[in-house]
Amino acid sequence: MLRVLAEGEFYRVGGQTPIQVDVRVIAATHQDLQVRVAQGLFREDLYHRLNVIRLPLPPLRERAEDIPLLLRHYLRAAARELDVEVKALAPLAERALAAYGWPGNVRELVNLCRRLSVLAPGSEIRAEDLPQEIVAGAAVPQTEWQRALAAWAERAAVSGEGALLDLALPQFERTLI
């Protein structure tokens, strides 16, 4: 690899003649390569050859505003790949996914989109369709009555019912009185 980057040529295994190449290399890592070089775990000469233009990209947990757009993109891609209908995200599910920490970063998000495209029933992904580890790591209501209320509000909003508070308030008052 170093020879290709430095001289633009390489030898096939067992070959006698160099093969000329004109390539550009894009490399990505989640490791701090400067630390790895200092620890002797990454070659310094290769580090300097690769470190021409640096594009630091923060992890998803630091870019919550990008998550809804990425989810829609990868849900469409998963639907194409798996030959299924594209699923929409219910607002509560989208909020839960935006609040999740994404320790597996974009790979985890892509895999979740594939999983939900196949396993979530219906044409919309709801908060209850999300894996428990995501719901547990997000700010999603956890008590039974909160889940029931959230599901009711989501159904009512989707069906086009307006003034949800006007519908819900009398029910709450009756229950509390």
From TrEMBL:
<dbReference type="InterPro" id="IPR002078">
    <property type="entry name" value="Sigma_54_int"/>
</dbReference>
<keyword id="KW-0238">DNA-binding</keyword>
<dbReference type="GO" id="GO:0000160">
    <property type="term" value="P:phosphorelay signal transduction system"/>
</dbReference>
<keyword id="KW-0805">Transcription regulation</keyword>
<dbReference type="Pfam" id="PF00158">
    <property type="entry name" value="Sigma54_activat"/>
</dbReference>
<dbReference type="GO" id="GO:0006355">
    <property type="term" value="P:regulation of DNA-templated transcription"/>
</dbReference>
<feature type="domain" description="Sigma-54 factor interaction">
    <location>
        <begin position="1"/>
        <end position="118"/>
    </location>
</feature>
<keyword id="KW-0804">Transcription</keyword>
<protein>
    <submittedName>
        <fullName>Nitrogen metabolism transcriptional regulator, NtrC, Fis Family</fullName>
    </submittedName>
</protein>
<dbReference type="InterPro" id="IPR025944">
    <property type="entry name" value="Sigma_54_int_dom_CS"/>
</dbReference>
<dbReference type="InterPro" id="IPR058031">
    <property type="entry name" value="AAA_lid_NorR"/>
</dbReference>
<dbReference type="InterPro" id="IPR027417">
    <property type="entry name" value="P-loop_NTPase"/>
</dbReference>
<keyword id="KW-0902">Two-component regulatory system</keyword>
<keyword id="KW-0010">Activator</keyword>
<keyword id="KW-0067">ATP-binding</keyword>
<keyword id="KW-0547">Nucleotide-binding</keyword>
<dbReference type="Pfam" id="PF25601">
    <property type="entry name" value="AAA_lid_14"/>
</dbReference>
<dbReference type="GO" id="GO:0003677">
    <property type="term" value="F:DNA binding"/>
</dbReference>
<dbReference type="GO" id="GO:0005524">
    <property type="term" value="F:ATP binding"/>
</dbReference>
